[in-house]
Amino acid sequence: MKIKKLEMVGFKSFVDRTIVHFDHDVMGIVGPNGCGKSNIVDAIRWCMGEQSAKHLRGRAMDDVIFAGSESRGPTGMAEVSLTFDARALGQDVSPGGVPWGAVGPEEVVVTRRLYRAGDSEYLLNGVPSRLRDVVEFFLGTGVGSKAYAIIEQGRIGFIVSSRPDDRRGLFDEAAGITKYKAKKRAAEVVLATTSSVKHSKRAAKKSPKNK
Ligand code: ATP
Asked: Do residue 142 and residue 180 come from a single domain?
C-alpha cells in the first residue's frame, strides 16, 4: 500500500499545517539534529493507531501535541492525516462495512486527532470511525503501527532477539493472515460470552430458588 501524502498540524514540532508529498519511490528527509526528522515517522506511526507513548518517544500520549516554543504558546490539538493510494487495496478491505478497495474511492485518508482535554478521534475518509476500524483497515497490508512497514533504529535488533511468538507476528502479517486471526479471536470471544450467558441462564433455571 502506498502513502501519497502526510499532513500534520499541532503534532510535536509541526505546529503549523505541514504537508509531505511522497511523489517518488525513494525519498530521503535530511536536516540538522533535532529539526524533526524522526517526528515525521512518529506522525505516521501515531496516525496508524499507535497506543504506546513510549514508541512515540514520549511519556504520555499528549506529549505529541505541540508543547509551545519561545515564540508560540502550546496548541490544544494534534492532527495527522495519511493519504493512501486505495487502488492497490483488496476488494475485501471494508473498514466500518464500507468497501474501500478497487470499487471504492482512489484514495483513503486516515485521520487521527487528539485534544489536550483528552478526547481523541479517528476518521476514515472523513467518516468518524473507531480505532478498531483503523487497525482492521491496516491488517494484512504490511502497514500499521505493529507491522514491518516502519523499520526504525534498533528494530532489526529487536526482531532478531525477540521471542519466536513475537517474531511470528511479522511473518503472519507478511503472509496476510493477521486479519483472519484477528477475526477468529473476535469470534472466539463472542462464542465464549454467548456460552457463558447460556450457561448462567441454565444454572439460574435449575436453581431451587427458581422452582
Ligand atoms: P536527530 O537527527 O537528532 O535524530 P531529528 O531531526 O530526528 O533529530 P526529532 O527527534 O524528530 O529530530 O525532533 C526533536 C525536536 O522536536 C526537538 O527540538 C523537540 O523539542 C521537538 N518536539 C518534540 N515534541 C514536541 C512537542 N510536543 N512540542 C514541541 N516540540 C516538540
From this structure: no
User: What is the average per-residue pLDDT within 20-28?
Assistant: 92
Does 62 sit in the ligand 1 pocket, CB within 6 Å? no
**pLDDT tens sequence across 129-151:** 999 888 888 876 767 666 777 88
Task: Please tell me if the CB atom of residue 46 comes closer than 6 angstroms to any atom of ligand 1.
Answer: no
Residue 195 belongs to some domain of the structure? yes
Distance 57 CA to ligand 1 centre (A): 10
- Asked, for residue 69, whether it belongs to a domain, the answer is yes
Ligand 1 centroid – CA 155 distance (Å): 20
Compute the distance between CA of residue 64 and CA of residue 67 in angstroms, rounded to an integer.
8
Q: Which domain holds residue 83?
A: 2-152
Burial group, residue 72, by CB count within 10 angstroms (0-12, 13-18, 19+): exposed
pTM of the model: 0.81
- Residue 74 falls inside a structural domain: yes
Q: Are residues 187 and 107 in the same domain?
A: no
Residue ID of nearest Cα to ligand 1 atom 17: 34
Distance CA 31, CA 18 (A): 16
What is the distance in A from the centroid of ligand 1 to the CA of 34? 5
Residue nearest (by alpha carbon) to ligand 1 atom 2: 33
How do residues 79-130 score in pLDDT, each as one tens digit?
999 998 877 666 666 655 555 655 566 788 999 999 999 999 999 888 899 9
Spatial neighbors of 119 by CB under 8 A, at least 6 apart, are: none
- 211 occurs within a structural domain: no
CA 203, distance to chain mean position in Å, is: 42
